[in-house]
Amino acid sequence: MSDTQPILEVENLCTTFTRGGVALPAVRDVSFNVGKGEVLGLVGESGSGKSVTLRSILGLSRRYGDVTGSVKWMGQDIAQMPERKLRHIRGRDIAMIFQEPMTSLNPLLTVGLQLTETLKAHTDMGRAARRDRAIEMLDHVGIPAAASRLNEYPHQFSGGMRQRVMIAIALAASPKLLLADEPTTALDVTIQAQILDLILSLADELEMGVILVTHDLGVVAQTCKKAAVMYAGRIVEQGDVRQVLRAPRHPYTVGLMRSVPQDVPPRSQLYTVPGTPPSLEALPQGCAFAPRCQGRTEGCLVARPPLATIAQGRSVACFNPVTDAQGAAA
Amino acid sequence: MTQPVMDIKDIELEFQVSRTLTDFVKQRPGRVVRALNGVSLQLNKGETLGVVGESGCGKSTLARCIVRLYEPKRGSIHFDGKDIFAAGAKADRSYNRRVQMMFQDPYSSLNPRMTTGQILSEALSVHNMRPKDEIATRVAELLDLVRLPQDAAGKLPHEFSGGQRQRIAIARALAVEPEVLIADELVSALDVSVQAQVVNLLLELQDRLNLTILFVAHDLRLVRHVSNRVAVIYLGRIVEVGDSETLFSNPSHPYSQALLSAAPSLDPDDKGSAIRLQGELPSPLNVPSGCPFHVRCRHATDFCKIEVPELRALPGRGEVACHHAEEVSEHA
């Protein structure tokens, strides 16, 4: 699919919030593409700017911060598009699943109403057709006795069920791109597996592009085709998921991979990345990872490494990337 | 084998749900959440026992029973041969000192108005661990133990990151020189790279101080890494318990098999055996009859719907609560 024209092109996206006169650059110079039916994983620790990136794509952060750069949807720049026009794309072409199934649904409205609301706004279906479609969607996401549950309220659903409802709402208008912000973090592993299977099969069926934000490397490995690793608001490594996870080139990715307890002797000391991620108020002048990096040089502390292409579809933002052999050994 | 320090026998715990208006109208009695339905476990000296299960299965309730935050309705817990819920036992504060709990949320488990120094010295003075004039030195020692800088003593919890806060929680638990630590989702709220730091610290301290740890978590990889033995809980019942490596490489209970296979592998080409469980955890308000897992189990027979399986030893494996364990483990 990678040779087809990408449906979403994000270029030099920057989102800066201001708090008490201090600028907080939450997302800095983020660029990536998503093709038809392609699943891109956005990985990083909390505060690395994953969620803000997603929100900025949909124009949800411009009320709170300053967004620059371009977000091209089917060739059309939506970053600067007025809110009224953007509303036709939001929910219809690009849909989003939020992280908290417990708080993202309106507790005062029935699930059926929240589902049909999207359809009412974006399609010219009649009332009965909308209802049928809502039942079909709930069925699709695996909610038993869908027809009778339309009149129930969110509190009558369990966490896993609410997340399915969120997915059903997002997919009701058959979007071409799904932005999924930690869709399974609040769920148990057995439910997580069901939900991820569902998203993948729908992506396949509807040729829907997906951006999956997560901090779980296992989830990325199992669901994504491409992966982008974020650190302190920037993408530090990007490429095919197999290459990124098997032979990471950025020292941060290497550190992340090695701190997961897998294939290490039980109860041995785990590899750790020393220190903690920097605060956005006090980002280092050079590479944001330099203070924690074991391979840093003088240059890393002064200049910021650009995200440079090192192979077809593979890029790394590091002056001294880890060699293939070292990365694979990790 | 080693002597069990803690012997948990058949504990059961129910929570009363307050009657709703409809309950009154329909003259129904109030409903009960059956959180624990006969849990038996032994904790051996110096080991780490991992407890895994889905949310709502009773992991945390079990941990809280052990530190006497909840009193079980039936069953007993013996520590060092003494019943901790016996009449008069509650007055014995030394148990509280010897068994310490660490909580999941580093943002709510520390008093925001107390400095780290105050938090640690409170623990020391409540249990009379040190004479007054030695407390400051002991606080410094503790900070050193969990590798926090000395100036941390004068700071408030909000000045620390999540990982540092969990270190303070560990230091607070260790202040009173306990023998058993109950870690309830100690690192679940932390990022991967910080998680590893805290886990390393815990493992190192365990060896150095000869601690016994009950490690409750839902991250299976992590539990496998830190535990000597593992117990799998389902709806307030232990369905399998055994040596960590054996259980993880060859789970015998159909639920353990499904749970372990659901954990996503880090290898993109390893799609796993993909045993997908149907449906969700039944509500503990309404525990199914017989084997609580039968409604989601691929191997369930009519017998499973009637008879509750007891934990029994399986040759070469741990203990399993399944009527069909022999056939099931051959399938895996």
- Approximately how much helix is present in the residues of chain A? 25-40%
Gyration radius over CA of chain A: 21 Å
Uncertain ranges of chain B:
none
**Proper CATH architecture of the largest domain in chain A:** 3-Layer(aba) Sandwich
From the structure provided, what is the oligomeric state, counting identical versus distinct chains? heterodimer
Largest sheet of chain A: 8 strands, mixed
Mean pLDDT of chain A: 89
Strand content of chain A: 15-25%
**Principal-axes shape call of chain A:** globular
Which radius of gyration of chain B do the C-alpha atoms yield?
Answer: 21 Å
Helix and strand content put the structural class of chain B at alpha/beta
Strand order of the largest sheet of chain B: 6-7-8-3-9-10-12-11
Low-confidence stretches of chain A: none
- Sheet having the most strands of chain B: 8 strands, mixed
- Taking strands numbered 1, 2, ... along the chain, how are they ordered across the largest sheet of chain A? 6-7-8-3-9-10-12-11
- Could you estimate the helical fraction of the residues of chain B in percent? 25-40%
Content of β-strand of chain B: 15-25%
Beta-strand segment tally of chain B? 12
Our measurement of the CA-to-CA distance between the termini of chain A, rounded to an integer number of angstroms, reads 30 Å
Shape of chain B: globular
From the N-terminal CA to the C-terminal CA of chain B, the straight-line distance is: 29 Å
Commentary on this structure:
- The complex is a heterodimer of chains A (330) and B (332).
- Chain A has 330 residues and is of the alpha/beta class.
- Chain A folds into two domains: 1-93 and 175-330, 3-Layer(aba) Sandwich (Rossmann fold); 106-173, no CATH class.
- In chain A, 33% of the residues lie in helices and 23% in strands.
- Chain A has twelve helices and twelve strands.
- In chain A, the strands form two sheets. An eight-stranded mixed beta sheet of chain A has the order 6-7-8-3-9-10-12-11, with helices on both faces.
- In chain A, helix 3 (111-122) runs parallel beside helix 6.
- The longest helix of chain A has 18 residues, at 189-206.
- Chain A is globular and about 65 Å long.
- Chain A starts with 7 loop residues before the first strand and ends with a helix.
- Chain B has 332 residues and is α/β, with parallel strands linked by helices.
- Chain B has a domain at 253-332.
- Chain B has an eight-stranded mixed beta sheet, sandwiched between helices. A four-stranded antiparallel beta sheet of chain B has the order 2-1-4-5, with helices on one face.
- The two termini of chain B are 29 Å apart.
- Chains A and B meet through helix 6, helix 7, helix 8, helix 9 and helix 10 of A and helix 7, helix 8 and helix 10 of B.
